[in-house]
């Protein structure tokens, strides 16, 4: 289905370029959207100041390429793309882009604006050879609710432009420590803003710095996951984002970039008598002071604190005692316990798995902006033809019907019985676009089992649609789900031969 949608999107973009051929700016914008269809998905990482955006980005990439420090490190919107060689390019608001030096310090990439005020920078583009960046371009944004209104404004302007032009992000990962009013207000701004905006169906929330919940105890992640599950089930939150995941970002970043010397220092700590080790891990002050009496030096302990935090050191020493005897074994345990793997699975199912659909949405919103008056003033037969073609795609593509219904179900505005809402969301692709994901089957399930499950789902939803007690909105929703089931069966036809 999505292949035909992409083809239709390309056709309407070419039509838009023809219709606006006497408007060079509009033609450039349309050509950019055509190029964008062939690029990796664009995923923006947003959140309040010090929510851990850059740290999470580093964890996802597996390298320290986004600067992190104790202050508001990300002052400008920064794009991280896959590239053949490392390169940093500064794009000013006025003037031509210019390269910046690529320099690493203590294993981390150093980004120096070379004296250019952040207010004069439109964006930084960092090209970096990375397998992770081949499927998604990650966009680090300044923190909202910053002490500097100018810094916060850059993020809002990027994700929610005042002129109603399309955002350059296809999807958003929003980081928060807890759901505060500023978080809800920011997520709310994405709702009901057109077919290609960052709506609840392509926004994932992350409880970042989850290890700080529960006082940084070794079992802190259990508490954090429980909170994430409660948020995800909350009707108010469900209308704002697609899922909520708890992640200990610093632990994930360190696990992905663990050094042999760090494992050696943790092994030395773990060899201390248990009571002595537990006493030194009660606080940062005790941990640092113990460097004068034995074990790793104070300097080494300071480096461990910067890289792991107290939660990470407590967890890592416990894991080493339990048998994580090599850097690779410890790194795998840290990443697995950080919540990063779960987040990556969610991002793959919600974002990467529906890449073409999300990119088509972004492109069609750009055309919609032109139709509404972007560029020169609309009018005439050519503009009317463009508007009709756009409306035909938006109204006729079942993929958009699925997304509209998903958003309505998550917002609680469709009168489906509560017991079948979950199955409706799954069949609509909420948990992944593959037939197995839609049908609640494990990956690689036998074709016959998948086909039987699809037939069973189709029959169930036909019965739901025939229920005379359902309101009209629920009946319409049932018919949309039925169409999704029929689409699944159409995809499975070759398996019947």
Largest sheet: 9 strands, mixed
Count of the separate structural domains: 3
Fraction of residues in helix: 40-55%
Structural class: alpha/beta
- Per the CATH scheme, the topology name of the largest domain is Rossmann fold
For the largest sheet, list the strands in their spatial order: 4-3-7-2-8-1-9-10-11
Strand content: 5-15%
C-alpha Rg, in Å? 25 Å
> Uncertain regions: pLDDT < 50 for 5+ in a row?
192-198
Helices and strands in order, then pairings?
Elements: H1 2-19, H2 24-37, E1 41-47, H3 53-61, E2 78-82, E3 87-92, E4 98-100, E5 103-105, E6 108-110, E7 121-128, E8 136-140, H4 149-159, E9 171-176, H5 181-188, E10 203-207, H6 220-233, H7 235-238, E11 243-246, H8 249-256, H9 260-270, H10 274-280, H11 284-289, H12 298-321, H13 327-338, H14 340-350, H15 355-372, H16 380-396, H17 398-411, H18 418-427, H19 435-439, H20 447-465, H21 472-491
Written overview of the protein:
With 497 residues, this protein is of the alpha/beta class. 52% of the residues lie in helices and 11% in strands. The protein has helices spanning 2-19, 24-37, 53-61, 149-159, 181-188, 220-233, 235-238, 249-256, 260-270, 274-280, 284-289, 298-321, 327-338, 340-350, 355-372, 380-396, 398-411, 418-427, 435-439, 447-465, 472-491, and strands at residues 41-47, 78-82, 87-92, 98-100, 103-105, 108-110, 121-128, 136-140, 171-176, 203-207, 243-246. A hairpin with a 5-residue loop joins strand 3 (87-92) and strand 4. 42% of the residues are buried. Mean pLDDT is 86; it is low at 192-198.
């Amino acid at each position: 289905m999505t292949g035909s949608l992409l083809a239709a999107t390309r056709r309407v973009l070419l039509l838009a370029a023809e219709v606006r051929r006497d408007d060079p700016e509009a033609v450039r914008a349309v050509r950019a959207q055509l190029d964008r269809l062939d690029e990796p998905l664009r995923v923006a990482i947003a959140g309040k100041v010090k929510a851990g955006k850059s740290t999470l980005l580093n964890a996802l990439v597996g390298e320290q390429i986004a600067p992190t420090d104790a202050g508001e490190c990300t002052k400008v919107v920064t794009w991280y793309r896959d590239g053949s060689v490392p390169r940093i390019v500064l794009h000013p608001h006025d003037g031509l882009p210019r390269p910046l030096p690529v320099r690493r310090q203590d294993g981390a990439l150093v980004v120096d604006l070379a004296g250019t005020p952040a207010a004069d920078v439109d964006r930084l583009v960092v090209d970096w050879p990375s397998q992770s960046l081949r499927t998604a371009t990650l966009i680090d944004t300044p923190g909202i609710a910053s002490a500097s209104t100018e810094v916060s404004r850059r993020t809002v302007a990027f994700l929610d432009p005042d002129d109603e032009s399309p955002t350059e992000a296809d999807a958003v990962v929003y980081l928060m420590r807890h759901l505060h009013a500023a978080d809800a207000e920011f997520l709310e701004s994405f709702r009901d803003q057109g077919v290609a905006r960052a709506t609840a169906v392509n926004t994932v929330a992350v409880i970042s710095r989850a290890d700080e919940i529960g006082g940084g105890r070794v079992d802190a992640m259990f508490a954090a996951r429980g909170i994430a599950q409660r948020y995800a089930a909350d009707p108010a939150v469900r209308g704002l984002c697609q899922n909520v995941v708890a992640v200990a970002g610093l632990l994930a970043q360190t696990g992905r970039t663990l050094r042999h010397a760090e494992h050696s220092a943790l092994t030395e700590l773990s060899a201390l008598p248990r009571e002595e080790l537990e006493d030194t891990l009660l606080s940062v002050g005790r941990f640092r002071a113990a460097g004068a009496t034995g074990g790793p030096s104070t300097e080494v302990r300071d480096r461990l604190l910067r890289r792991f935090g107290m939660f990470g050191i407590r967890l890592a020493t416990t894991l080493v005692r339990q048998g994580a005897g090599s850097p690779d074994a410890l790194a795998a345990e840290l990443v697995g316990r950080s919540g990063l793997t779960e987040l990556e699975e969610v991002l793959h199912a919600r974002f990467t798995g529906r890449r073409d659909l999300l990119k088509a949405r972004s492109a069609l919103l750009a055309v919609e902006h032109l139709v509404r008056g972007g560029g020169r003033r609309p009018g005439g037969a050519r503009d009317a033809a463009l508007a009709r073609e756009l409306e035909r795609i938006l109204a006729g593509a079942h993929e958009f019907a699925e997304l509209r219904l998903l958003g309505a179900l998550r917002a609680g505005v469709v009168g489906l019985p509560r017991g079948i809402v979950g199955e409706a969301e799954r069949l609509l692709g909420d948990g992944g676009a593959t037939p197995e994901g839609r049908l609640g089957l494990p990956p690689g399930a036998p074709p016959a089992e998948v086909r039987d499950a699809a037939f069973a789902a189709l029959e169930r939803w036909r019965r739901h649609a025939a229920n005379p007690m359902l309101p009209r909105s629920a009946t319409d929703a049932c018919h949309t789900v039925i169409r999704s089931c029929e689409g699944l069966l159409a995809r499975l036809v070759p398996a019947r031969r």
